[in-house]
From TrEMBL:
GO cellular component: nucleus
Keyword Nucleotidyltransferase: no
Protein name listed in UniProt: Beta-catenin-like protein 1 N-terminal domain-containing protein
Residue stretches making up the Beta-catenin-like protein 1 N-terminal domain: 31-138
Entry's localization field: Nucleus
Protein keywords: Coiled coil, Nucleus, Phosphoprotein, Repeat
Gene3D superfamilies xref list: Leucine-rich Repeat Variant
Coiled-coil regions listed in the entry: 415-442
Length: 536
């Protein structure tokens, strides 16, 4: 269907419309339960097009749409095998759907639109036999839910989205995707618009992110879409929507994991293990894929799937290839190894230490993105976190010895680097503490929790991880390492007391998000470090 040059339909009047209910028509009320006699009276007082969008004008649009919908369904039922008989009514219905897009100019009228019971009629058309009509409806829903349209109209937006959910819009939108072919430009655009509509609904009502995954096969469709080798706009958008669905939902993370989703995302990422994206859009898509992977690695069962799918090995390969995904691979490894010893063990077993410590020493590939100071800082913090996770996950045996030996080789250069980082982050935190104290003097109230969070943002958490790593090294009782640490502390006019103070603040602020037992174990470990540093 050509959507650019549709012939305009002249306004018509006629008998009271019939209602299509339960497989038949009756004339007791308006179509779909709407009182069209009232709307007819409105229409008769307003001839011509819509000039000002108000309640009266909206009712006129709805009346005209419902009539064309009724005519189309009636003609299709009467002549099911003769498309030429209902072709004109299809074109007219298309035009009416296009006219309804005017309603996006008055989102404050959405509650009245819902009250008129028009939403069921619109949503049902997503299953229309003519796929062009379904495409029209997708475009309409995207316009009505557009973020710019709904700005400052929170309550009307919520009412519309609730009505869409109640009338199975999520299910019908996703079912319709399976009918669409990306070999057709219009249908390709409709896929994009479908994803946009779902994203718009999530913006209005965040619970939609889990609802759409509970009620539909959207996760499975998205997983299949990102695994297609060729890059295009829909693949990029699919990766973005998948990341949105996963970012704040443990339920969706687990659900996709059960669909072999960890392996699926790894397959999509593996396409870039030895090549870089060819455009900024493709680069954004790759970042979305890594966002998906990191979200998936939150539940412990998905960490196990990551290991079984050789995710650790893939991330090391990506790092060794020194392509643009280098930093993202470090981030994924950090997520995989946090509080999960089996991933740490696998990392050591497949010779990941050499690659990780090259990054720790600052030997990172230089690209346009890597040259940004913020990127280098994020990478630095990630690799510090990764090494802290290795120490936490590998507590004994030959793997532990291999990890510790890295800090002895080449005349303890890794300890030199660790102390350099300690000094830099310590200075940053001290400067922030002084700034906060000055604010206190200026009578700007700030509670302890807010002060602590400000210091975390300034680099305190990374400083704490460095101090914990120093605690591991000191507790190993390796004399060469201890001697090097003490020498460097003196050179920087620091003492072991400074490190102990950082550890004590960390100890006192360990949360119990993973349960009281985990908190107690973590605090006990820090207490041992503090005690070891107190030994002469």
């Amino acid at each position: 269907m050509d959507h650019r040059n549709k012939r305009r339909r002249e306004e018509e009047t006629g008998a009271l419309p019939l209602v299509y209910e339960n497989g038949g028509f009756n004339g007791e009320s308006g179509f779909g339960g709407i009182d069209l006699s009232l709307l007819e009276a409105v229409e008769s007082s307003h001839n011509g097009g819509v000039e000002v969008l108000d309640l009266r004008a909206m009712k006129k649009l709805v009346l005209s749409f419902e009539r064309r919908l009724r005519d189309n369904l009636e003609t299709r039922m009467k002549y099911p095998e003769q498309p030429d008989k209902f072709a004109d009514s299809e074109v007219e219905l298309h035009e009416e759907i296009e006219r309804l897009k005017i309603l996006a100019g008055g989102p404050e009228l959405y509650p009245e639109l819902v009250a008129l019971n028009t939403v069921p009629s619109i949503v049902d058309l997503l299953g229309h036999d003519n796929i062009d009509i379904a495409i029209d409806v997708v475009g309409l829903l995207m316009d009505l839910t557009d973020e710019d349209v709904l700005e400052d109209n929170d309550e009307p937006a919520r009412i519309l989205v609730d009505a869409l959910i109640e009338n199975n819009a999520l299910e019908l939108l996703v079912q319709n995707i399976s009918r669409l072919s990306e070999s057709d430009p219009d249908e390709t655009a409709a896929i994009y618009n479908t994803l946009a509509t779902i994203e718009n609904m999530i913006e209005v009502k965040p619970a939609v992110a889990e609802l759409v995954c509970e009620r539909t096969k959207l996760l499975r469709w998205l997983l299949g879409r990102i695994k297609i080798r060729e890059f295009d706009g829909n693949k990029q958008y699919a990766s973005e929507i998948l990341a949105i669905l996963l970012q704040n939902s443990t339920a969706n993370q687990k659900r996709l994991g059960q669909m072999n989703g960890v392996d699926g995302v790894l397959q999509a990422v593996a396409m870039y293990k030895s090549r870089d994206p060819k455009s900024s859009d493709e680069e954004e898509m790759l970042e979305n894929l890594f966002d998906c992977l990191c979200c998936l690695l939150m539940p412990v069962e998905n960490k196990e799937r990551f290991i079984k799918s050789e995710g650790v090995e893939l991330m090391i390969i990506i790092m060794k290839q020194k392509k643009s995904a280098y930093g993202s691979a470090i981030r994924a490894l950090d997520f995989a190894m946090t509080k999960y010893p089996p991933a740490c063990e696998r990392f050591v077993d497949v010779l990941g230490l050499k690659t990780a410590f090259a990054a720790f020493m600052g030997k990172i590939p230089l690209t346009k993105k890597n040259k940004r100071e913020s990127y280098q800082e994020e990478l630095e913090e990630r690799i510090i976190s990764l090494i802290a996770s290795l120490f936490a996950g590998i507590t004994r045996g030959s793997r532990r010895e291999r990890l510790l030996s890295k800090f002895v080789e080449n005349e303890c250069e890794k300890i030199d680097r660790l102390m350099e980082l300690y000094s830099r982050y310590s200075d940053r935190v001290k400067n922030e503490t002084e700034r906060l104290n000055k604010l206190e003097l200026d009578d700007l109230e700030m509670d302890e929790e807010e002060q602590y969070n400000r210091k975390l943002e300034a680099g305190l958490y990374t400083l704490q991880l460095i101090a914990v790593t120093l605690g591991h090294l000191w507790s190993s009782e390796h004399q060469q390492m201890r001697g090097r640490i003490e020498l460097l502390l003196r050179q920087q006019r620091l003492t072991k007391e400074d490190v102990k103070d950082v550890l004590l603040e960390y100890h006192d602020n360990i949360g119990d998000v993973d349960g009281p037992e985990d908190k107690e174990r973590a605090q006990t470990r820090i207490q041992k470090f503090i005690a070891a540093l107190s030994d002469l």
